Queue: 2 jobs
Job 1
Amino acid sequence: MYKVGITGGIGSGKTTACKVFEVLGIPVFYADTVAKEIMIKDIVLVAGIKSAFGKESYFEDGKLNNKHIAGIVFNNEEALAKLNALVHPAVFRAFDAWEETIPQNVPYTLKEAALLFESGSYKMCDTTILVTAPYELKLKRVMQRDEVSAEQVKARMGKQLNDEEKAKLANHFIVNDEQQSIIEQVLTLHQQFLKAAETHKP
Ligand code: ATP
């Protein structure tokens, strides 16, 4: 099946764009949400995390000890790379399993991932979209959505690849500023993907 990857910086509006695709009947795989789920449910992944970061990575009731893991990977690139090396392949497996459940008459699927480019996940997509928005607007939107301070948002933003780097790898763009309609841009891309999916040979 034709696969479209979609990404963007924090607060760029990638989830908002995905909701519009969903209205058009396109199934969306939310990689970041799935990653959180499988860190609790995927027994291979759970075993890998315990072995890498200790048994205390999980509470007795099976819930993830976010504080413990964050404490290890925060400002430790090697540990973060280790965690990603465990989580990303598990998310790829979950995506493959999810795709198996999608009916054949669906023209294409969308994979939303904050780290689409960083994780290498884009290589498994037929095409990619980068959602961008002006810095100040992203800051304002995330502060409102998450009820956090500008400093907290900036710290999260600082950990991501910047848009210029992502743009080099992206095939399509959605500009989510206050001038251009996100709905119209999604509709245009949808038409392009329908055509591409028709001629797509796996
Ligand atoms: P994250 O990486 O943090 O998950 P995201 O890229 O998925 O962010 P969204 O959650 O889609 O971003 O958008 C961030 C916030 O901005 C949300 O509260 C959303 O409702 C709002 N927002 C996004 N696009 C628009 C828009 N065009 N007009 C008004 N509000 C918007």
Job 2
Amino acid sequence: MIEVDISEFAKKRWWVDQFAFVVLEKIGQKHRHLNLQDKEMISIKNQAEIEKMRKAGKLAAQVLNYIEPFVKEGVSTLYLDNLCAEFTQKHGATSAPLNYHGFPKSICTSVNDVVCHGIPAEKDILKNGDIVNVDVTVILDGYHGDTSRTFMIGDVDEKIENLVSRAENAMYRGIAAVKPGKYLYEVGKAIEKYISKFGYSIVRSYGGHGIGRGFHEDPHVLHYYSRENKIRLEEGMTFTVEPMINMGQSYAVETSPVDGWTVTTADGSLSAQFEHTILVTAEGAEILTQIK
Ligand code: MF3
Ligand code: CO
Ligand code: CO
């Protein structure tokens, strides 16, 4: 019989969680719903798997490098999709987005106020001053590599250029916070610390993710500080860091009721994103989707 007066604990949510944690530990139950140190589902990759992740990551990076010169004024996002799909196939891999939960294309192309999951279309022609995130995920020998960049079309307003370069910096700040023994929330903390000074907002309803045989594995990686990510990092974990940064003050987003995929900022402000797949190593993080 455990009897505790919870009124003191209830003053702060943190205490409520700590209290519940202690009680549940005592009665030997799991506490999955509290997300406290819940890493049972996070797969640790062995050497053979890591090698495959390196190959998949490298190919995803190659697709982005390959497509870069085609991302220009006047081209349709569907053209970019076709080229990426063809390149991926030629390299013996498949495009993970195609048919993923019914997604209709091989890459995601997210233009201007589209936050993520934009569907390539023939009618979507890139124009001078636009920004477009191209998100590539390949499956090679059973393993996923996931990476994206935001490209600028022609002459982009300086304010927009700043948004794009800061979104990229934010991703690298997050990656730099990765170290075995540290908590995963250091990633979001570093991103939030950096981004907060610009008056931008960090999207909360989409995050990074564990990755491997599965496209989206545990853990869910938050790009802002939250104790929900109080998960101890370990060598051999692989996950993505992919902050979506809105130029406006609101992180609120909306999903298109028409196609069920396209996510836009609720306030119509622009959004930029960069993504890498990383491996937790003894020293910190190895970026798998970067060609050295
Ligand atoms: N590549 C995206 C990510 O970074 C996921 C796209 S899922 C899709 O997680 F179905 F929209 F393709
Ligand atoms: Co991803
Ligand atoms: Co992606």
